[in-house]
Specification:
Blueprint lengths: L16 E6 L4 H15 L3 E8 L11 H18 L4 E7 L8 H14 L3 E5 L13 H18 L6 H5 L10 E5 L6 E4 L4 H9 L2 H4 L5 H15 L8 E8 L2
Parallel strand pairs: 1-2, 1-4, 2-3, 4-5
Antiparallel strand pairs: 5-7, 6-7
Length: about 250
């Protein structure tokens, strides 16, 4: 007898639309640009929703009022490298994100606009083995996105103004992919698109310009991930915790 409550054990082989919700420009490229490149190559339409402009980032004397617009431009350039044309910014303050109803509503709005079958975001859990992955903004965006996925975006009675004023009907997301998760259970082999990932990261000059060997650092990181998941020697991978929500 079929279990009516059974959920898939593997992510969908292909989806038509995917939405990546991250805190800062460059977050998606450090953790997921290779995976995104495989999706766009397979015909998936990918949208980026970046919650802040990254105005608290950088390593030089760039005036603060210039940093946000600069990082927006860098993110759009990086997105183009991996086949993403739709890049949206919510404009929240970098480094000061908090769980709020406003943020849940704004992410729910984008979900209902894009209507993705898959959402990629950051893990809301702290990663004690790699504390840099657990920036408070990352965890806040991950938790806010999960709250938007369930229950807000799919509940026709949540945020009624989105329907009444904007015509945005409820939408159910089937999968959520959590990056930088301490319980990652799925690896994507990105060996064939590693050069594109490095190129996308290189677009973020305000953030990586001080790194003498970005290529070596990122490839070493992905090589370790591939080894952890049992991929063949010489392969490169990105890892996620895949949550089935539908």
């Amino acid at each position: 007898m079929t279990n009516p409550f059974a959920r898939p054990t593997q992510p969908a082989e292909h989806v038509e639309r995917a939405l990546c919700v991250l805190a800062h420009p460059d977050d998606v490229d450090f953790g997921s640009a290779g995976t995104v490149a495989t999706w766009t190559a397979a015909g998936t339409e990918v949208t980026y929703c970046i919650v802040t402009d990254g105005d608290a980032g950088g390593f030089d004397e760039t005036p603060r009022h210039e940093m946000g617009p600069l990082r927006q431009a860098e993110q759009r350039a990086a997105a183009a490298v991996v086949g993403v044309e739709d890049v949206r910014f919510l404009g929240y303050p970098d480094g000061r994100l908090e769980l709020s109803l406003d943020l849940r509503r704004d992410i729910s709005r984008v979900i209902r606009q894009v209507r993705p079958q898959r959402v990629l975001t950051s893990s809301p859990e702290r990663f004690w083995d790699r504390i840099g992955a657990s920036h408070p903004d990352h965890m806040t965006v991950g938790e806010s996105t999960l709250r938007a996925v369930y229950p807000d975006a799919r509940n026709p009675f949540a945020w009624p103004e989105l329907l009444a004023d904007e015509g945005l009907e409820a939408w159910t997301v089937a999968e959520v992919w959590l990056g930088a998760s301490p319980r990652a259970d799925h690896a994507v082999d990105v060996t064939a698109v590693a050069d594109r990932k490095i190129e996308a990261l290189s677009c973020h000059k305000s953030q990586v310009g001080h790194m003498p060997d970005l290529d070596g650092f990122v490839r070493g990181w992905m090589s370790q991930t591939a080894q952890r998941f049992g991929l063949a020697e010489g392969r490169l991978a990105e890892a996620f915790h895949v949550v089935h929500t539908a």
